[in-house]
Specification:
Glycosyltransferase, 2 domains, 16 helices, Jelly Rolls, 597 residues, six-stranded antiparallel sheet, single chain, four-stranded antiparallel sheet
């Protein structure tokens, strides 16, 4: 049998082989359903710097009768017609105020439209005083972290429209025409009230008297965007997300235990790629309005998944490498993240714990025990100011305990995935979310002095949680995706985190060796069966939102090499290697292992 280190090196080697840390270029795509943000950038189509108006035209197709709410953001005046009837109108001077939220963008206004089954014409008239010039539309369902049941969205776009080619429809959902005059009178504009010919008719092949001469229907400027190379349903190895930052963090640990710098070089490439790419990503998000383009979550996203958690390899490198060429850029990034942790990340009212605005305001996710607490521990080890370091360590310890008041299910002795503020509804005991909790507790216990006032309570809860998990380990060594549902499929990421945390617990003496040693060994043997010779890791549940519907968790797709599981298995193998190497009864830490006595 092969020892754990050799197995996780397979995974690390595959990551090095398969991860390019580069962008590709592609034509911006179109969404066929009105289930996400749509926008028309009149300014990039017709230019800026002078008063003007223009029109945009598209078709909506509903499969059934529906009442559809739409959120809207725009500059200056805007009027919208559905089948010739005005459904929205705002006059006057205004700036665009897109507010970037956790997984969505908030807009200033909203309106409703009624759709009968069939096709409908949606037309926009937009004016500018000479400044910015765009219109943004989205349904409320575009806000992330919400599990939708049987939500229907109308189709949008030019596909199937008479005399419009499929090639054109693949490039844009909108036709546009302009610019037209936006005459000024007494300091006010009359652009919305001035009826130009496109408002009365839609005719392909017709020229209209525009601001600079005859104009006709066209499409908005087609943008070329940077994209991830060979993306999979769960993402890529190197996009900006907590689990990819987690992979880089794990590769740093693998470099340390293996004494192979190739793995730490992978982590450095991850960090440098994202620091170098920030101006490019910001251009795509804020200039081209490609708000869902590659790595967009690195730009002003107020969520721990995209702030503190993926920053772990950055702060780890600062702590362990005293000198490297662009160290100052890492310091600037981590200083920004430290400010975010202390001043910007929202916390639950009446508590210290990190919370979220989705799916409802002040939803506590057990995920955030991992997304935030390990960074707090690292910040406590990183800073030079002793008082600040103590503040971060105290914050990590206090949050570890206070999360229990929200997401610990006392009756089941397991963690629920989330808790809606002021709502007693119990959410399922998802495996990976229980892993996040055990991981966070182990990080705190590793660095918290036993004399700290919170240490005994954290240790007691860690032991209680681990003891509860024993009930659900399958004979294969793995755990079900939903812990207390035997019909739920065995899943790798949650199982790997449990093995990692318990191995750490046995090695540090937090857990009884006779009880938990065999559990760790059996768990690792189960994980071994999911790692192929080329480093492929199987049976990893993709990311989830939160819901009280257990069927949602049981039906989530499993993928090979999803980084949610890769970094968990990497850390599990490293901790098992450390454990067996520290026990004299296992010479050289080799398999096969007898049961621990």
């Amino acid at each position: 049998m092969i020892n754990p280190l050799e197995i996780v090196k397979r995974i690390g080697d595959k990551l090095i082989r398969d991860t390019p840390f580069e962008y590709s270029l592609e034509v911006a795509g179109v969404a066929e359903k009105l289930d996400r943000m749509q926008f028309v950038d009149f300014g990039r189509a017709f230019g800026l710097g002078r008063p003007a108006t223009a029109y945009a035209w598209t078709r909506l197709t509903a499969q059934k009768e529906m009442q559809l709410k739409l959120e809207i953001e725009h500059n200056d005046g805007c009027r919208i017609w559905l089948d010739g009837k005005v459904v929205y109108e705002q006059e006057g001077d205004r700036a665009i105020r897109l507010q970037f939220d956790e997984r969505s963008i908030k807009m200033s206004h909203e309106f409703e439209i009624h759709l009968e089954p069939g096709s409908h014409v949606l037309m926009i008239k937009s004016e500018t005083a000479g400044g910015e010039w765009s219109v943004f539309l989205q349904p409320p369902s575009a806000h992330g972290a919400v599990v939708e049941n049987d939500v229907r969205h109308p189709s949008i776009g030019l596909k199937g429209v008479e005399n419009i080619s499929g090639q054109l429809a693949d490039l844009s959902n909108w036709l546009v025409v302009g610019p037209f005059a936006n005459p000024c009178a007494d300091g006010g504009r009359k652009g919305l009230d001035l009826e130009q010919l496109p408002q009365r008719e839609f005719q392909i092949g017709r020229m209209y008297p525009g601001l600079d001469g005859p104009v006709t229907w066209s499409i908005p400027k087609v943008e070329i965007l940077g994209a991830m190379i060979d993306p999979l349903p769960w993402g890529t190895n190197y996009s900006w997300n907590y689990h990819n930052g987690g992979v880089a963090w794990a590769m740093q640990a693998l470099a340390e235990i293996s004494e192979d710098s190739r793995y730490s070089e992978y982590a450095a490439r991850f960090c440098d790629y994202h620091l170098d790419g920030i101006p490019f990503v910001e251009h795509q998000v804020k200039t081209l309005h490609a708000v869902n383009s590659a790595n967009h979550f690195i730009i002003d996203t107020p969520l721990l998944d995209f702030t503190l958690a993926p920053s772990l390899p950055f702060i780890q490198r600062l702590r362990t490498e005293p000198d490297f060429p662009n160290r100052h850029r890492y310091e600037e990034w981590i200083d920004r993240m430290i400010r975010y942790a202390r001043e910007e990340q929202i916390r639950l009212p009446g508590s210290t714990i990190f919370t979220r605005t989705t799916p409802v305001e002040y939803t506590t996710w057990v995920d955030d025990m991992f997304m935030g607490i390990p960074f707090l521990v690292q910040a406590a080890l990183y800073g030079e100011d002793l008082a600040e370091r103590q503040l971060f360590l105290d914050d990590a310890a206090r949050q570890t305990l206070e999360f229990n008041s929200q997401v610990w299910d006392e009756e089941a002795e397991l963690y629920m995935h989330a808790r809606y503020f002021g709502d007693p509804t119990k959410l399922p005991h998802w495996s990976r979310c229980n892993g996040w909790a055990s991981w966070a507790m182990s990080e705190v216990l590793t660095q918290l002095p036993p004399t700290h006032q919170d240490y005994p309570a954290i240790l007691a809860h860690f032991k209680r949680h681990c003891a509860s998990l024993l009930r659900y380990q399958h004979e294969s060594g793995l755990w079900p995706n939903v812990l207390d549902h035997p019909e739920s499929s065995l899943e790798v990421s949650g199982s790997a985190i449990f093995v990692m945390a318990m191995a750490r617990g046995v090695r540090h003496g937090w857990l009884d060796k006779a009880t938990f040693g065999p559990v760790v060994v059996n768990g690792w043997r189960g994980l071994e069966t999911r790692v192929e010779a080329d480093g492929t890791v199987r049976d990893i549940c993709m990311g989830t939102m939160c819901t009280e519907d257990v069927a949602y968790y049981n039906s989530r797709p499993f993928y090979d090499n999803d980084t949610h599981g890769l970094f968990a298995v990497l850390f599990a193998g490293i901790e098992v290697e450390r454990l067996i190497s520290s026990l004299p009864e296992y010479a050289n830490g080799r398999y096969p292992l007898p049961a621990l006595a």
